[in-house]
């Protein structure tokens, strides 16, 4: 009732293919002094409760800085980047990280859509029907108009302390039309993101540059 079959086994870490002897039909098989196991001919079943190698944290070095993690999947080294460790034994890899411009453009599109929805909603409630004389709830409401003027100025106005070539959203392809709506020129935005991503980012976020070079 006992059988033995030679099988090809792929190491999940190194991807190396080795030959193993798979013995089935008995729970009493004993590799005296682990001779066969040490030679790599047979691997004891994990189900028996025998620990072949004690688990340890994954160790790595990135840009000369050594680190370790309990998992081979690392998500807390570079913001927005997941690193999967695949090999051991001092293997080296080059990681190329490029901006996810599609996600950036999606967020800017959502930003523009939210602004346009605000403007269109206020316009709808500020209507005056010259035929019936009916007015919207916000018609001639000076407070609402002041709020809209402030929002529009904040969105389209000049941003201080940044590159003068990238200090307004109109310079990256987002412009205001005659109806008060924002429109995106995809070609202009793509060009700005590809060539001056950091400058574009400073238009939309709170940012500061220290006056002291030691800070």
Index terms:
29% helix, 215 residues, alpha+beta
Please provide a written account of the structure.
With 215 residues, the protein is α+β, with helices and mostly antiparallel strands. It has 5 helices and 8 strands, in the order ββαββββααββαα. It has helices at residues 35-39, 101-124, 142-156, 186-195, 197-204; strands at residues 3-10, 17-24, 58-62, 65-69, 73-74, 83-84, 174-176, 182-184. A two-stranded antiparallel sheet has the order 1-2. A hairpin with an 8-residue loop joins strand 5 and strand 6 (83-84). The radius of gyration is 32 Å and the shape is elongated.
Helices, by number, come to 5
Label the structural class.
alpha+beta
The topology string of helices and strands comes to EEHEEEEHHEEHH
Head-to-tail CA distance between termini? 75 Å
DSSP strand tally:
8
* Strand portion: 15-25%
Brief summary:
With 215 residues, this protein is an alpha+beta fold. It has helices at residues 35-39, 101-124, 142-156, 186-195, 197-204, and strands at 3-10, 17-24, 58-62, 65-69, 73-74, 83-84, 174-176, 182-184. It contains five helices and eight strands, in the order ββαββββααββαα.
List the SSEs and their pairings.
Elements: E1 3-10, E2 17-24, H1 35-39, E3 58-62, E4 65-69, E5 73-74, E6 83-84, H2 101-124, H3 142-156, E7 174-176, E8 182-184, H4 186-195, H5 197-204
Antiparallel strand pairs: 1-2, 3-4, 5-6, 7-8
């Amino acid at each position: 009732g006992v059988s033995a079959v030679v099988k090809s086994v792929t190491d999940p870490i190194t991807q190396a293919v080795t030959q193993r002897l798979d013995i089935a039909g008995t729970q009493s098989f004993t590799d005296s002094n682990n001779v066969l196991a040490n030679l790599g001919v047979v691997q004891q079943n994990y189900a028996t409760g025998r620990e072949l190698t004690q688990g340890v944290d994954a160790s790595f070095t990135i840009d000369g800085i050594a680190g370790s993690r309990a998992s081979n999947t690392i998500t807390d080294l570079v913001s927005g980047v997941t690193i999967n460790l695949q090999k051991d034994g001092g293997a080296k890899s080059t990681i190329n990280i490029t901006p996810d411009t599609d996600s950036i453009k999606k967020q800017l599109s959502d930003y523009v859509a939210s602004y346009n929805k605000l403007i269109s909603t206020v316009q709808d409630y500020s209507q005056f029907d010259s035929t019936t004389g009916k007015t919207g709830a916000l018609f001639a409401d000076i407070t609402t108009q002041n709020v809209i003027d402030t929002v529009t100025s904040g969105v389209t106005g000049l941003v201080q302390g940044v590159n003068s070539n990238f200090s307004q959203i109109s310079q990256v392809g987002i412009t205001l039309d005659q109806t008060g709506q924002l429109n995106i020129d995809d070609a202009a935005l793509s060009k700005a993101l590809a060539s001056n991503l950091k400058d574009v980012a400073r238009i939309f976020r709170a940012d500061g540059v220290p006056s002291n070079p030691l800070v």
